[in-house]
Amino acid sequence: MGLTKQYLRFAASAVFGVIGSQKANIAYVTLRGGEKGRYVAVAACEHVFIWDVRKAEKVLILKGNKQEVTYLCPSPDGIHLAVGYEDGSIRIFSLLGGESNVSFNGHKSAVTVIRYDELGARLVSGAKDTDVIVWDVINECGLYRLKGHKDAITQALFLKNRNLLVTSSKDTFVKWWDLDTQHCFKTMVGHRSEVWGMVLLNEEKRIVTGSADSELRAWDITYLQENKEEGEPEVKKPKALLDDRDDQEEELDENPAERILSCQKAGSVLRDGRDRVVTMTTDLKSRMLACHGTDAILEVFHVLSEAEVKRRLEKRMKKAKKRAKSLMSRDGKETAEELVERKLEDEIQRLTHIKASAKIRSVQRLGRNTSPTRIAQRLFVWRINHQSDYPINVIPLSFSNMQQDIWTPRDRTRLLRFFESGWVIQSHLEKSFCFFNRSTLQVIRTMACDYALCSLFVPGDRQIVIGTKSGKIQIFDLASGSLLETTDAHNGALWSICLCPDQRGIVTGGADKTVKFWQFELVKDKESGQSKRLTVSHTRTLQLDEDVLCVRYSPDQRLLAASLLDCTVKVFYADTLKFFLSLYGHKLPVLCMDISHDSALIATGSADRNVKIWGLDFGDCHRSLFAHDDSVMFLQFVPKTHLFFTAGKDKKIKQWDADKFEHVQTLEGHHREVWCLAVSPSGDYVVSSAHDKSLRLWERTREPIILEEEKEMAREAEYEESLAKGDEPVVPGETQGEAGLAGKKTIETVKAAERIMEALELYREETRKLEEHSAACSAAGRKLPPPTMSPILVAFGNISPSQYVLDVIRKVRSSELEESLLVLPFSYVPDLLSLFNEFIRGGLEVELVCRCLFFLLRIHFGQITSSQMLLTVIDDLRKNTISRVRQIRDILGFNIAGLQFLQREIENKEDVTFFADATDRFEEKKRKRKKRERAILTVA
């Protein structure tokens, strides 16, 4: 038997070159009790970066798994950060240690909005699957799912003083939900397009919505229950001409006597932008409103208080009276007084608009001082641009558009190169290129250039040659960062450049259907007069019939291969340029190719998603491999091997064996199309770049890859994924209403249910052994040796079978407990109920057991009540549960009363107040100190 070829695994090492992603918003966070407004959290592919905006440094990384981050929401206490992902999951990170211990799985698609309530005890999330889910953060479980919208959720807001929730969606509706009864009691249909943003103003008595037009609609909220308590008549809608949408609203709304609140349109505010609203936000006291669209304009509005509005109306009334008196004195006739009406413009005033240097992606405001005379509060604006890598912009909110860029913009990376030493990575960013240190992953140098399509390092790593979109060759000196020379090479785009194996020249291929050969020369620099600089001189030209997309020299310098736009690869003799071979078989143009180190094989990757391996001796196709699900963008051999890597638009990087035609490994991590990759000269590192604007470094480990095991693991992963994506279990007794279970079936819930079933099987087996042992002892009339315990129970410290079942249930995540019990077959429920009775009687995990018990009773109510065998068990559970819960409640009440007594004693003894909000007192002391300082200066 021959020896098995060994492959070594490449593992993800680092993600660098990215500041933030465009999919998610930004959020202020408080890091380790630091200063507010100093740290900002941004999404970076699957991770979350915490930036210190003063030092422009990355201070913390919240690491994700595989899915891209889509939404960020900090908790009210500033200690946690809720992160929503593209697969619908939500993870809550602790900003103290950067770890995540809580995760929620309920949505089937990307999370679009997350909001905490005022206390931070509940969390609401909305997603593209049109569902709204309310989560209990303290118990780490889902409360319920709210169904009713027909398109993606765009905003969700808790009301502070009422148990109400308001949500907006792309289905043009705004829905009000009563969280006590979990139903939608009002639907606002006054929008003609998608509702993209929503904020609450005036102590939650006004709601402002932004849609796909240039109009911000304001709605007055009247709480009918308050009016009834105060003895006011019910608020009725005034009779007016209504269009079809208003008629529809009248039909959808319930009887006014039964509604919790009523909404009446107060007017509209026109924005300067003509596109849809992207973000709407307010400050902490809802006195400032900021919104922006898909353009680069940020509009800021000032929300006046009721007293300020009254003062403005009084001033207008006085002016109207003066105007009437002047007219009467001049004409001698008595004129009627002008009517001063209250308009929406009197309450929401346009303050200013700020023009950013690029499109704005997200905006968030921080600050308590909302006086219009002191509006220099900072905003963080997340800018996007098709030519930039989303830098953070700090914009002082003032009438002067002062802007300060923290990071230099970066374009998408299409080219990657390793130095010959392998220690520095060069990355092209279309109109600039920069160098990263491989060990620190920090930028060493950035240089501006034209639109670059290809590049290579001159031997010695002192100069770099770049081919541009305009067909020019640019030579840069790496030490000084200066441009040495620009040469017109091709009439069209210069698509490919290759170094000659003798390292004395280069060959280029362009869109002008030519392949040109260039030789390195040293000429005297005219500026300095003494030093010499590098240049290239044209030696010969190869004319072809189609555009040249890629050129490659064979390492022995015998052959030259050129891929053409006609889907073929032409091979020529390098010395005479005579035609040698034509490699045809691809259905679409060949975008990339490479030749092995021994000049025996050439591998070509095409836009038809295939990779073909050819022999350079006769031009025969050894094998055609279906490599990617989209175009193959890049291909490169590992030095001194027949292994090669391919990158495709399907977001994957794959490693192949050109001898055995085997797929070795798939490197997954990028979230967009992978444009290029580079293999280090030693073959130990691979760096890749994708359209998600990130660079990823992959390192070769010492872990071997066994292909059969890899295939088996891939099949198992595919089976588990299909199992989790199967039909959702039907909840018995649950109707298809507006509310449902919060969780969803995942592979983790299925595995948790399997562990519970295995524990119950073990419990049954051990119980049977004990019964047989007691029967044998009774028959023998003496005590026999105990039966052998299960190795699992021995491994856990000789615990009882019932205790083992409780330990398995305790280890199930709180957010996955209901779904795991839902997957459990009913045949295991009687044993669980008997065990629950035993646990409650012994006072073991009463809260957890009661939660499981009530859920099982709710979903299996019909089968449990119809079973005669379970009547005694249910009756015992009723007695024991009520008595035990009352006992725990009394203990908790006694402890709370004792703590309150101790608090009062300490406050009376030391004259201090515990748990008081010191913010207002601090602000009051600050105001008094400034007032005292001004008085001293005045006296001086």
From TrEMBL:
WD repeat ranges, renumbered to this chain: 104-137, 146-187, 188-221, 487-521, 583-624, 625-666, 667-699
GO biological process, one term: maturation of SSU-rRNA
Record keywords: Coiled coil, Repeat, WD repeat
GO MF term list: snoRNA binding
Keyword Aminoacyl-tRNA synthetase among record annotations: no
One GO cellular component term: Pwp2p-containing subcomplex of 90S preribosome
Matching PROSITE patterns: WD_REPEATS_1 (PS00678), WD_REPEATS_2 (PS50082), WD_REPEATS_REGION (PS50294)
Top-level taxon of origin: Eukaryota
Coiled coil: 303-361
A matching Pfam family: Utp12
Biased composition (Acidic residues): 244-255
Repeat as UniProt keyword: yes
Residues covered by the Small-subunit processome Utp12 domain: 802-904
Region listing for Disordered, in residue ranges: 230-255
Compositionally biased residues, Basic and acidic residues: 230-243
Annotated family: Belongs to the WD repeat WDR3/UTP12 family.
Name under which the protein is recorded: WD repeat domain 3
Organism: Lepisosteus oculatus (Spotted gar)
